[in-house]
Amino acid sequence: MSTISETDVKTRMRALDLIKENFKRLLDELDKSGKLHLVFPKRTLSNTIYDQKSKILLLGPDIQYRSFTDINEAKKFTQTILMASIIYKALRNNEYPTIRDLFYRGKHTISYTSIDGKKVSENSWDDQRESDSVIRDLEVFLNILREDLLILSKEKGKVVGNLIIKSGDDTIDLSKMGHGAYAIEPTPDLIDFIDVDAEYVLVVEKDAVFQQLHRYGFWKKNKVVLVTSAGQPDRATRRFVRRLSEEFKLPVYILCDSDPYGFYIYSVFKAGSITLSYESERLATPTAKFIGVTLTDIFGTEIFKEILRDPQIKNTLEEIAKDVLKLKSKEPYLSIEERRNFVIKAKLRDIERAVELVGYRVAEACIGSPEYRSKIKRKEGVSGYPWFLTPEWIRELCIFFYTTSKLEIEAITGKGLRFLADIYIPRKIENEDWID
Amino acid sequence: MGAVLMSAISEEKYMSISPAEFFYKYREVAGFANPVKAFYQVVKELIDNALDATDMHGILPDVKISIEKADEVQEYYKITVEDNGIGIPPDVVPYAFGKVLFSSKYVMKQSRGMYGLGVKMVVLYAQMTTGRPVEVITSRENYRMIYYFKLRIDINKNEPVIIERGAWRKTRDWHGTVVSVTIEGDWGRAKQRILEYLSRTSIITPYANITLITPENEIIHYSRVTNAMPKPPRESKPHPRGIDLEMFKTLINNNGNGEEPVEEFLTSNFQSIGPSTARAILNLAKIDPYKKLHELTESEIQRLFNIIKSYDKYKPPSATSLSPLGREVLEAGLKRIFEPEFLYAVTRSPRSYEGNPFIVEAAISYGGNTPMSPQEQPIILRYANRVPLIYDESTDVVTQVVKEDVNWESYMISFPAPLAIVVHICSTKIPFKGVGKESIADIPEIRREVKLAIMEVTRELKRYLVKKVKEKEVMRRVEILAKYIPEVARSLAIILGDNSSKNRIEAALTRKLIEYVSRRSNVSVEIVNSIVKSVKIGV
Questions:
Q1: How far is B538 from chain A (nearest CA, A)?
Q2: B396 Rama class: left (phi>0) / alpha (psi -120 to 50) / beta
Q3: CA-nearest residue of chain A to B477?
Q4: Which domains does chain B have, with CATH numbers?
Q5: Would you say residue A151 has pLDDT above 80?
Q6: How near does any CA of chain A get to the CA of B341, in Å?
Q7: Which range is most confident: A122-131, A403-412, B1-10?
């Protein structure tokens, strides 16, 4: 019996055929139309659109023609073909390269003698950003995810819960991981879900918080599949969460820091990321909800009413999101004293990131610190991501700008792990106190 | 040695010393100031004469110069110059070499030297320093004899003294002149100057074979690269606007017995004066056209001269007395010395200043073996009547034009550059600055022509440079594509082939891609292939 799992063998054959087919077509076109170019959807910010209906980021209709005879594209063209051949070779040799491996396998010098006799040399690529970029181009060109080309990446995400899966040729019970957890494999599509017994999925941004909740028995008590992305989520974690949501109709709640970075991590889970928008259809979980920590969890909504007393702020916010005044009011989870202890001051970097989320106008209207006001001036014209321009998010970020405060989730555990696990999370879910 | 000396000599009758004596006393003026300058001047005069005797008469020059040490102790050198020119009639030889004289026949014609005056200076200088006589061997084309003379000049009497003479039958078909003089000079320090002069001369005489044998027995040889030669100049009468009062008086005084009517004198001695112009002038001068020359009073002569000079309806002077080198000669000369990447020459139409016709020619040499220019200007090679001007560059009108009138940057040129500009000015009267005869004065008409000539050749260079930049850009594009062909072919062969077919597919793809790039860029398959062949991957 082969040591390689059957799923891998099948995946490999499919990938080899796909690559061969596509490049054969490339040469057929050269013979037919006299053109040598790769045609695939453009992977640029301007061709990334937010689909209001499905609530995910998608590639737009723009097509890229990467022609070998376009001197600005010739190198990229060559890099793309080179990368395809390296991946093809790895597939044929039963290998599982990482993107870093692929970078090294293709890195070499190309030297030649120019017409005036000079020796010239350059590298096929100089840093991994270049090779990573052509891998993404190939995914789009071949219409396949790199995981299905058996390209591996570092495992980052972890999961525990009442869930039985089949990975490779083995069956694994994720409720029997001891103090550890199952590391989500880079090819989550090759996993078979055998059985699941859970009410919802909770994704925690921070690994430390995941471990605390795990040891506290949170997932057993609440029948939860507990996942952490350990910071920015990788593709495997996102795909894994998406499958849980899609295949078992489980609600997905995301728990992050209360700062623009946390907000963005949530949006990556929910809508997809800009650089990988071509994968959103398979990676995004449009039903995911931001459970916390929100600014209104910290400050309540009273402060927002205060802010709106300024007619200018009120008008600006209403113009951007009409229903911002109709939002429900609520009490804070923290006392004034706790707030003073746990909250930290936002840095300029945080403020700038927040401007990218909701746009310059909200920031300009709400920001409390005159120092930051002048410094973010250069972001003028930034209009924000459409999926953040909802009344709920505008209220959150308005409070953020006004107080220039942020809160790390560890601070909540500072109030007591019991508070987080037994009060904060269950109550928020019970009250449907989340942002969708 | 110029104007000063010449007019001094033409005033012969007003001076109490003979021209020979005059030169003897004022030799610095003629360029014989010290043993270095004198050496240079002697060689230059003899070569100029040799070339005048050939190319000015339609003969392709073969000129041999030999310089040898002529005394064991003293710094005496014997200089022998041989040409294949028209030769000198034997009865003229003693006067051509032994009497400082000035032709009274006023005809205008471009030449290197001034009526052979220089060679007499050479004879006198030899006499002064070594006391040795000049030796001349000469024959003309249709002569059956070759004539031999050894002679010196009686300085006080200004007469030739023949020491030896002889003649022998020609055994071969030879014509030309061989002149030998022995002078005292400083060869060590004159050598560089002489070589420079020779090299500069060779640039504009690509139709000449010139050989120099130095005292060290080095042989410097410039061989003929073209048979094209400029058309020889024709003699012409002076233009009225180009004449001065002394010249005018000499013409009147030397006119036979003076019985000629003044109207006829004007029409027969000047160009651009026909009967009606002569009448108009005499009418303005209030002189009877039939008055005989010897009857003219001093004040009438003065009045007539003033009217002639101020009259402004003459036809411009004729340029038949000029002999420009022409494009072909200029380009052949520059090609021989610099093998340039780009070369262009132009001969402008004749113009005139103060009644003197002149033609400006310019040539440009770029790249190849053209030497690097100085920091702020091109290399300037100046010539006047086919004589190279080597010294006093900074005061010359050509230098002024190069520095002040031409915006080099607008021609895509920044210095230093491998760039040389040749400017040749030919005229029946070159307006030299000072006695050195090494720089030309800033005459507005000449400056304008020099500017236009330089701009014309530089414009052509610019056109070439623009084209080159464009071609380079095409090549750059081809290189960018061609260098990736092996990588693309190899990668595609890995995907499309198996172990047995991989190499075949790679070769076929390489060929296909080369043809593809060649077709898209309009560059030959061979050139694309040469780049592809040079590509090395991962070495």
A1: 5
A2: beta
A3: A71
A4: 2-222 (3.30.565.10), 240-310 (1.10.8.50), 327-465 (3.30.230.10), 483-534 (no CATH)
A5: yes
A6: 14
A7: A122-131
